[in-house]
Design brief:
Layout: H1 4-23, E1 39-44, E2 47-48, E3 59-61, E4 66-71, E5 80-87, E6 92-95, E7 98-101, E8 130-131, E9 137-142, E10 146-155, E11 160-163, E12 171-173, E13 178-184, E14 194-198, E15 205-207, E16 222-227, E17 235-244, E18 253-256, E19 262-267, E20 275-280, E21 287-288, E22 294-295, E23 301-306, E24 314-321, E25 324-327, E26 331-332, E27 347-349, E28 356-358, E29 368-369, H2 372-375, E30 383-388, E31 391-397, E32 399-401, E33 404-406, E34 409-419, E35 422-427, E36 429-430, E37 437-445, E38 451-457, E39 463-467, E40 479-486, E41 491-493, E42 496-498, E43 500-503, E44 519-527, E45 531-540, E46 542-543, E47 551-557, E48 566-567, E49 572-581
Length: 582
């Protein structure tokens, strides 16, 4: 039998513990981590470009959290199918208040019975998911927090009416389903020839189809049944045709657009396709602009953009409309070019045993540079110039120079320093234009790849040689030429500013990153065979966005993998006459 004092002690102890626990309650105050996702892809059925014809991609701004895209006239925008969404950080996606898809990490938080869980790092969703995109809708992406994007979809329905003798563009009002057309007063309303009549867009159908009639009677307004490609029921349209005394006189304006193209534009009489010509000052022969470059945005307008002109030369142009020709104001083609682009100017410094070839003239401001500064610390320059048949060109030779392999190279920028036996380079020169292509002439002698080594620093600080591209041994070497335009943020190396810093030491290798967000345009040519006669080559520049560049990088190398000390010891690239085409 326990004593009463023991019982009282147990009761007091229990009360004490209860009070302590009540005063020290555990709260769920551990903050969740902040994980900000990005939308990396967003596609819907009928996705197209702004013209409504070509393939399109969504314009995604993850800073403003907006998605903008176009769809064609084959889909119902009020019941649009979302086909693919990709997000980072294993996030869940909700569209217009409805669960679209969830990644594996967040599958249990979302009602996603109809969908497929995506792999880690992205979210893809249900192919049967549809929503009303005729208005802006909200796309919510959820990690530990919720983030909202605004989706804006524009449907492109190209409606057009063109009647012989028409004056001006047809007035087409989709909100009232009414179209009004004016024709010259010399035309008979009972006897009109209709060339285009696409009220339902490119893929729609009009009944009856006036373009199938030899002549149409529009003395009274006519009613048409318009069947859209996505709709089950037709829509009724009223079309009115009137005569007018007004006529359209052709006009011609000459301008240069942001991409550097010369643009001829203006008005044209209905049904007339203009022909454009140009010639340089001092020449008598006119060059005709290719017909495929003549664009007709509307039935009474035109736009002709062309390039392949040279700087600092005055040009004349004219446009012919049937039996009438207009001459434009003389113009100069303005587009930046690469300095010393034919490699005419060089200077040689150093001693006879180790001459240092520099690709700029005495007293000139450098634009190009080479790796010769590093090569001549132990050997001779392997990027030089040569002359034949009155032509001077850059001569880039791959060599094994005493301790390591070195590809002949030339680049826009400057050689900053030699780090051991490796180079530190500043790639890029100031440049703000957007050329469409780069051309050059070249010859190439490929040799068998025999060197695949690189210098690396081990854990104890010692430098060792490691074979990086051993699998390429025995294969033909390739030359490499590329152009890059970007708005990179400059970096500083030992007090010298560089648009894009390159380091060739293998242990801290830093080369041009093609996935860098500041890369605006890029093009490349690689050749792995012998080219014994001068060959004219063109590199198309593919632009990733509409931004204006700050810098241009052009690089030519006799061995494609020269940055990794890999190549053939006698590969030789002769290169000349770089030109930027606008």
């Amino acid at each position: 039998m326990r004593c009463k004092s023991v019982d009282r002690f147990i009761v007091c102890l229990g009360l004490t513990l209860t009070i302590c626990l009540a005063g020290c309650s555990i709260e769920d105050d551990i903050p969740y981590p902040t994980i900000v996702p990005d939308i990396t892809a967003f596609t819907v059925e009928g996705l197209c470009d702004a013209s409504g014809e070509g393939e399109g991609t969504a314009e995604i701004d993850n800073k403003k959290r907006t998605i903008h895209l176009y769809v064609n006239d084959m889909v119902d925008i009020r019941h649009l199918r979302i086909t693919h969404v990709e997000v980072t950080n294993d996030a869940a996606v909700t569209i217009d208040g409805q669960c679209y898809a969830a990644s594996a990490t967040y599958a249990q938080r979302q009602d996603n019975a109809d969908g497929e869980n995506a792999t880690a790092g992205s979210t893809t969703g249900r192919t049967a998911f549809r929503t009303d995109c005729s208005k802006d809708i909200t796309v919510k992406v959820s990690t530990w927090q919720d983030y909202e994007w605004t989706l804006h979809v524009e449907q492109v329905i190209n409606r057009e009416i063109e009647i012989e003798g028409q004056v001006g563009n047809a007035v087409i009002d989709a909100s009232t389903n009414v179209a009004i057309v004016y024709v010259a007063n010399t035309e008979s309303l009972s006897h009109l020839k209709v060339n285009k009549f696409s009220l339902g867009g490119t893929h729609g159908r009009v009944t009856p189809d006036p373009t199938a009639e030899e002549h149409s009677d529009f003395r009274q307004h006519r009613r048409f049944s318009v069947q859209y490609a996505w709709a089950s029921q037709a829509t009724t349209w009223d079309v009115y045709v009137y005569t007018t005394e007004r006529t359209i006189e052709p006009t011609l304006d000459v301008a240069t657009n942001e991409q550097g193209f010369t643009v001829l534009s203006g008005t044209r009489p209905n049904g007339i396709i203009p022909t454009a010509e140009y010639r340089a000052e001092g020449e008598e022969t006119w060059t005709t602009v290719a017909p495929e470059l003549v664009k007709l945005p509307t039935s009474t307008s035109y736009e002709i953009a062309f390039d392949a002109l040279h700087n600092d030369i005055q040009y004349y142009c004219r446009v012919t409309f049937g039996d009438k020709t207009l001459e434009g104001e003389p113009f100069y083609f303005v587009g930046e070019q690469l300095k010393n682009s034919s490699f005419e100017n060089w200077q040689i410094k150093g001693d006879e045993k180790r001459p240092l070839y520099l690709p700029w003239g005495e007293g000139e401001e450098p634009f190009w540079d080479t790796g010769n500064h590093g090569a001549t610390t132990v050997g001779a320059s392997n990027s030089t110039y040569a002359e034949e048949d009155g032509r001077r060109y850059a001569c880039l030779q791959s060599k094994y120079i005493v301790i390591k392999f070195a590809a002949g190279n030339i680049f826009t920028g400057s050689y900053l320093a030699t780090d051991g036996s490796n180079g530190v380079l500043s790639f890029g020169r100031p440049f703000t234009s957007r050329p469409q292509r780069m051309t050059f002439d070249f010859q190439y002698k490929s040799s068998t790849i025999t060197r695949t080594g690189g210098e690396w620093q081990n854990a104890w600080g010692a430098y060792i040689t490691r074979q990086l591209y051993e699998g390429l041994k025995g294969r033909p070497d390739s030359c490499n030429v590329y152009i890059a335009l970007g708005d990179w943020e400059p970096t500083t190396y030992k007090g010298k500013e560089s648009p894009y810093l390159i380091k060739t030491r293998p242990s801290e290798l830093h080369l041009l990153d093609l996935n860098n967000d500041h890369l605006i345009g890029y093009g490349q040519m690689t050749c792995g065979k012998d080219v014994s006669a001068w060959q004219h080559e063109t590199i198309e520049i593919k632009y990733r966005n509409e931004r204006k560049p700050k810098y241009i990088i052009v690089v030519a190398s006799s061995s494609k993998y020269g940055d990794y000390f890999t190549g053939g010891e006698s590969s030789l690239l002769k290169i000349d006459d770089f030109k930027l085409i606008y």
